[in-house]
Structure formats: C-alpha cells, structure tokens
Design a protein that fits this description.
about 350 residues; alpha/beta; CBS-domain; 3 domains; 4-stranded mixed sheet; 3-stranded mixed sheet; 14 helices; binds zinc ion
Length: about 350
C-alpha cells in the first residue's frame, strides 16, 4: 500500500505505508523521553525534512539516468530510505559511475548549503548530548550533518549502496562487467563481515548493515550473471511459436479453463483472428472477483500490445517486462506475427544457459 504524491519531473513519488510506523515510533520515543508537544513537532518535522533530502538524492540518480535515455518508473520512500526504480542501470561504466555518484552528490550540495549553520559558533558550543534534542536552534545544522552521513553511508563500496555501483563502474573500466560485479560483490562481502564483527563490540546496528550488504551483494551478482547468460541471444531463441489464443468475446470462464487445462499462463486475446490484447493468470484471477466469470475476456484484457522484433536481444525484453509488467509480448518477423514471449520463457532460457555454462 502506497500513498502517492503525484508526479515531480514526470516521475511518480510514493510513500510506503510502513513510513507511518516510523513517525509513530518517533512520537512514542519522544513521549517516553518526556518531551513536550513542541519538541515532538520539531522531531517529526526533522524526519520529514530528512526524507525530503532522501527524495532529492533519488532524483539525483533518476535525472542523471534520464540524460542517458533511461527512464524511472517511480521513487518510493521506505522508513530505511528511498528507492528510485530505474528501468535499468546503464551498462557503460562511465554512465553508471555518474548515475551512482549523482545521489550522494545531492547530499553533499545540501550539506554545503547548510554549512554556514553547521559552522556557526553557537551550534558548536552546545553540548553534544543536548544537540540530540531537535529544536529551532539546531534544526538546520543537524540536517546538514545528517546529509554528510547520508553521503558517506551511501558511498560504502558495497551493493546495494551507491558505493558498490561506483566500485563496479570503476572496475568495469578495466575488466568485463560480470567479473567486475563479482569482484565488487566480494569486496562488499569482506566489508560486511568487518561490519558484523565490529557490530558485536560497538553497535548492533552495524550487524544489521552487514547482513543487508551480504544480501545485496549476492542479489546483484546473481542478476548480472543471469543477464550475461542470455547476452548474445535474440527473441528468435526464446520465442513461443505454439501459444494459446482466446477471442475477446469469450467468457472469462473459458480463460479459466485454458489456465487449468494447459501449461500456459498467459494468453493472446484476439478479435477476428487479429491480436486485440493480452491476459495473464493474475488478471484472470482478479477478473473472477471483480467482474465475474460470465463477463467477456475483453473487459479484463490489457490492450496495450507490446510488439518487438524477432532480432531484438533477449536482455531488452527482460527490461521491458520489468518496465511494463505486461504478461505477454508479441514478436514479429517482418510484418508477420512470429510468436509470443513471456517472462517464463526468459527465465527458462537463463536456467538452461546457466546449466550449459556449468557443463563446459
Ligand atoms: Zn543512492
């Protein structure tokens, strides 16, 4: 569940519902520390301002990526930080480097803008312990300081942090992207072990960061490996020539039957033997409750047909599935419909090629 802020620079900004828990937790902690309503107000305003900075950080990534022709679906704010869903990361090392650096760079700029407040003698003279209670006197300097931390934290050279991407991009200048990713993931894992060990002595939070890095490093390495197994393949290699179609006037009950009877989970919807739309398992299941099984397939079909050429690399279709969330993509050869492809085909191709790779 998300609350949407609408679009900024053409990118949707959402807040995840768990964000409310963060605010409740801040209020609860401040209450238990005996702070009054004014101070609680300052704390909440501080957290909200912090997340404005996090959002600007994500826009740093998104708008830099746009310069390289890569769009961003949305920016979502979670209590632990923001995520900009870029269609993909640029594969050119120098472009990935700039996109990754742009986020932390925003925090450095904010910090510089607030630096007069940080350097103000008034703030520096205060006791450190006292500075932790946010109020009008330390709001801006603390916001500046936290932006330094945001920049430094994100530059830790480990996935899923921006620093991991910076490291991979730098390594990619010298070696193959898959090798560079593996090397960056290994460096990240070594760092993570360091964090976990230090965490036992200093702060349990470091253990949490360590585990987060290990998971991130693993996911990134696996994804790049998967993509590399299908590089060089085109849709010709993964295409389904035998696929199920359903007429748009047919009842949803018939789609249910197709779903239960065969292997296919995604179907091409036709009208007068011409492609009209696509439906997938999820839409059929949703359709049963929303419009009922007697309604026509037409009412639940996705009519935004995506057609791709048979010579397009499979990697592109992989990106397209993530971007559009369509169940099925049509593949054409010249003017003729050569077949269809779904995400399962791509996954199968990855599995087959991984197995072949292990053999050789
Ligand atoms: Zn970032």
């Amino acid at each position: 569940m998300r609350l949407s802020f609408g679009k900024i620079f053409g990118i949707r900004v959402d807040i995840h519902w768990t964000f409310a828990l963060l605010i409740i937790w801040i209020v609860y902690r401040n209450l238990s520390e005996g702070l009054d309503a004014v101070h609680i107000g300052w704390s909440v305003a501080f957290i909200l301002s912090l997340f404005v900075c996090v959002t600007l950080h994500e826009f740093g990534h998104a708008l830099t990526a746009r310069r390289y022709g890569i769009q961003t679906k949305d920016i979502t704010l979670y209590p632990i930080g923001g995520v900009a869903s870029l269609e993909k990361m640029p594969e050119k090392p120098i472009q990935e480097l700039w996109v990754a650096l742009a986020g932390p760079a925003v925090n450095v700029v904010i910090m510089l803008l607030l630096s007069p407040f940080i350097l103000s003698a008034d703030f520096l003279q205060k006791e450190t312990a006292e500075a932790f209670v946010i109020d009008g006197s330390n709001f801006l300097p603390m916001l500046g300081i936290i932006n330094i931390w945001l920049a430094l934290f994100n530059l830790i050279p480990a996935f899923p942090m921006d620093g991991g991407r910076v490291l991979r991009a730098l390594l990619s200048l010298r070696m193959h992207r898959v090798k560079a990713t593996q090397a960056a993931a290994t460096i990240g894992k070594i760092l993570a072990v360091g964090f976990i060990i230090t965490g036992f002595y200093i702060n349990p939070f470091l253990i949490f960061i360590g585990l987060f890095i290990i998971l991130g490093a693993h996911t990134e390495a696996e994804m790049v490996k998967a993509q590399s197994t299908i590089s060089g393949f085109t849709l010709r290699d993964a295409l389904m020539k035998n696929y199920q179609t359903i007429e748009k006037s047919a009842p949803i009950a018939e789609a249910v039957k197709l779903l239960l009877n065969g292997e296919a989970k995604n179907f091409l919807v036709t009208h007068n033997n011409q492609p009209y739309g696509v439906i997938g398992r999820d839409q059929i299941i949703k359709g049963i409750t929303s419009v009922g099984e007697t309604a026509a397939v037409e009412s639940i079909a996705d009519t935004q047909l995506i057609v791709m050429d048979i010579d397009v690399p499979v990697n592109d279709v992989f990106t397209e599935f993530q971007k559009s969330r369509t169940p099925l993509i049509l593949v054409r050869e010249g003017a003729r419909l050569a077949g269809v492809i779904d995400l399962e085909n791509v996954t199968e191709l990855i599995m087959i090629n991984t197995a072949r790779g292990k053999l050789s």
